[in-house]
Write a structure and sequence with these properties.
Layout lengths: L5 E6 L3 H12 L4 E7 L2 H11 L3 E4 L8 H11 L4 E6 L4 H9 L4 E4 L3 H13 L4 E2 L1 H30 L1
Parallel strand pairs: 1-2, 1-3, 3-4, 4-5, 5-6
């Protein structure tokens, strides 16, 4: 017996994007699109009603933007995994998206090669960052780690006196 399909809700206000995602996901028998909506408020309502396993969520949406929609979805469907898929290449926006509880951030221009690996990573509980943004996150993580290590060393040194 096959495992149950992973239920996916697609949220984007651009119809050609819906068609692209549908085409990509139809080739994956383990993924089933259970809904496609075009604004943030509908996303929250459908997340609450359908309780999908995964939501592919754009940021620039009418009525309620994707960041706010994700905050609301976290309250009504907390088990749902969120993968932001956006044209926005701003590292600051991507960081904010991840701070709202999303598991990944994919730039749409990278989607042809990265959508399926991003979905797989997110469903496995991993964090996914688009290749075109990964350099920023690597540098930010390295700087943060070095700052924490320096802080730890200074604490030890100050305790030695």
């Amino acid at each position: 017996m096959d495992p149950p399909a992973i239920r996916v809700l697609v949220v984007d206000d651009y119809e050609p994007w819906h068609r692209f995602v549908s085409t990509m996901l139809q080739r994956q028998p383990e993924l089933q699109i259970i809904g496609a909506v075009f604004d943030g408020l509908e996303a929250v309502q459908q997340a609450q009603e359908l309780q999908p396993d995964l939501i592919l969520l754009d940021i620039g949406l009418p009525t309620v933007n994707g960041l706010e929609a994700n905050r609301r979805i976290r309250e009504c469907a907390p088990q749902c995994k969120i993968l932001f898929v956006s044209e926005n290449r701003s590292p600051e926006i991507a960081e904010e998206a991840l701070r709202t509880g999303a598991s990944g951030y994919l730039v749409k221009s990278d989607a042809a090669s990265e959508l399926l690996p991003a979905i797989k990573a997110v469903l496995e509980g991993k964090r996914f960052i688009s290749t075109s943004l990964a350099g920023h996150f690597l540098v930010a993580t390295t700087v943060c780690t070095q700052t924490m290590q320096l802080s730890w060393v200074l604490t030890i040194i100050s305790g030695i006196r």
